[in-house]
Design goal:
The structure is a single chain. The protein is α/β, with parallel strands linked by helices. The chain contains 4 helices and 5 strands. The protein has helices at about 35-50, 70-85, 95-105, 115-130; strands spanning about 1-5, 10-20, 25-30, 50-60, 90-95. The protein has a 5-stranded mixed sheet, with helices on both faces. Helix 3 (about 95-105) packs across helix 4 (about 115-130). The chain is globular.
């Protein structure tokens, strides 16, 4: 099964891909957030091209596992995807992804912060499923 990881942001949206076969997530690319309809069209294209069967969206919970304003916005986006796509859409806790992104970016040449965040979200999903 192929997966698409999404790090949703108000300005940019990061994407990562991965599969059950390798259980390794890789940064894919980022898009400017030009609205839900634009993102939906792009996500549909990606899913078709990459033969994606499940989407995993990062959920920005607080340290106390609560949902702040950003988590509410991501929840609305996830509901929108569920209403407009036929494949399953799940969420993954992304509380520590920013710290991990900073560490990875300092140690590598990768420059697409949002795509790296999406990779960490998807990798966390794979690791939790092991």
């Amino acid at each position: 099964m192929n997966y698409l990881g999404i790090d949703y942001g108000e300005r940019r949206v990061g994407f990562a891909t991965g599969s059950d076969e390798t259980k390794i997530a890789s940064p894919f690319f980022i898009l400017e957030n030009k609205g839900r309809d634009f993102l939906l069209a792009e996500i549909k294209k990606i899913c078709e091209q990459e033969e994606v069967e499940k989407i995993v969206v990062g959920m920005p919970l607080t340290m106390a596992s609560g949902a702040g304003p950003q988590a509410e916005e991501v929840s609305r986006f996830v509901d929108f995807l569920k209403d407009n796509l036929t494949m399953p859409v799940e969420t993954e806790d992304e509380r520590f992804s920013s710290t991990m992104v900073d560490k990875l970016m300092a140690e590598s040449r990768v420059k697409d912060r949002d795509a790296v965040a999406a990779m960490i979200i998807l990798q966390s999903f794979f690791d939790r499923k092991k």
